[in-house]
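FORM 7B - TANDEM STRUCTURE REPORT

SECTION 1: FIRST PROTEIN
SEQUENCE AND TOKENS:
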Amino acid sequence: MTNQLPDRPMRPKRALVPDIVILVRVVLAFAVLGLFSLPFPYPVAALVLTVVAISMDGLDGYLARRLGVASELGGILDITGDRIVEHAFWIYFAVAGLVPLWVPLLIVSRSFMVDAVRSVALIAGKTAFGSKTMQRSPLSRFLVASRTMRSVYGVAKVASFVLLGFVVVLDRAATGGVALVSADWTAGIVALTGWVVVMTVGICVVRALPVLWDAYPYFRRLAPPARPRRLRPSPEGTR
């Protein structure tokens, strides 16, 4: 006898549309980072495409809901695409010397911990967002799963990556002998970028804490049951 997998309904072809959007977004992000590495004026095109790549974050989810193909698998692919794009940008800007090394280290570590917790919750039938979210309290649902906070974090990432990209444009232009703005303006833009990056990292950490806190019951279910203690007979009971 051969073991056969249980029959599962096939995903409709229209379900591939959001997946293609995720793939295009990831490829576009890597193309953007390649353009940033080229001489001026290529980084200008990279700056424009950065806005496009980051703004596509919610497009796949919107299409999935409009086409009626939203699923747990789609949510996992969405989060995976977000992680790849976000990490790629932070790592690139750290390598370029525009953000401290602790920024991508913190962001990547946060992602690993949160995704590990969510994978455990998924075993219990809970998802990151939506009606089956793993968040238990109204506050944690607002901070993590609400569209408001997800939009706030999305806008913060757009602001960080656009400002960092603009600093790259200024640097590439100056290297090519083109002064786009004065030295005072450049210093102000760099200072503003630093504050926006710190704010973005702060929002990222704040949104991660409720996920880790609410994960305790799911890990408790996975813990092995306690072994019963053996009762030793008392000396008075033995003859």
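SECTION 2: SECOND PROTEIN
SEQUENCE AND TOKENS:
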Amino acid sequence: MSSHTIKNPSFGHTSEKADHNTREQLLDAATALFSEQGIASTTVAQIAAHVGVTSAMVHYYFKTRDQLLNTVIEERIKRFLTYVWDPVTGREDDPFTLAKDIVIRIIKASDLMPWIPQLWSREIVNEGGMLREKMIRHIPIDKLKQFEDCIAAAQKRGIVNPDIDPRWLFISIIGLTMLPLAAVKIFNRVPTLVALNKDDLARHIIALLMHGLANPSLGDGTNSG
């Protein structure tokens, strides 16, 4: 935003801080509503009502729907990607710890950004999702390559199952984490699943991965380096 005081269409002149807060609130509201009911089903009026302002205020900060969607990616979804991938340096030599830590960060991110699982499922994974094409250019290719290289190097050392495809492993992690996190409201209605929590999910996924990654010819190799 500009450094000078901006005229607000509903409330007159505001401080830069108030202006920034309103924009952040609108962005939070849009992200939450997109997650809960889908982008196509969310109107500008609903976003405005969520914050208690007029629709004109939404258009003031986000001139078009496309600008709003781009901002959701740049200022919200990329926070998730950063949280998950920034700790990966490319110098890791323990594939088991690397995979386990990524699982833990994805699940923790769903606490910090509770909208991410459903938004990911609705608008990125689903055919026709309105963020799918926009997200492709934000895939952290370098980080994915570092992850794949760590797995492949561990396969050459004989500690990772040779039947694991390093290119598919992160996709598998996303499926194991995001699907149950996105469907938690459904699972909470199933009597046998209602008592499950995110700690249970993390433990379950890590157990699957650790034993799936380990080279079966070595027995349990999850503590190998």
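SECTION 3: OBSERVATIONS ON SECOND PROTEIN
The beta strands are 7-8, 12-13.
The CA atoms of residues 6 and 13 lie 6 Å apart.

SECTION 4: SIGNATURE
Preparer initials: ____
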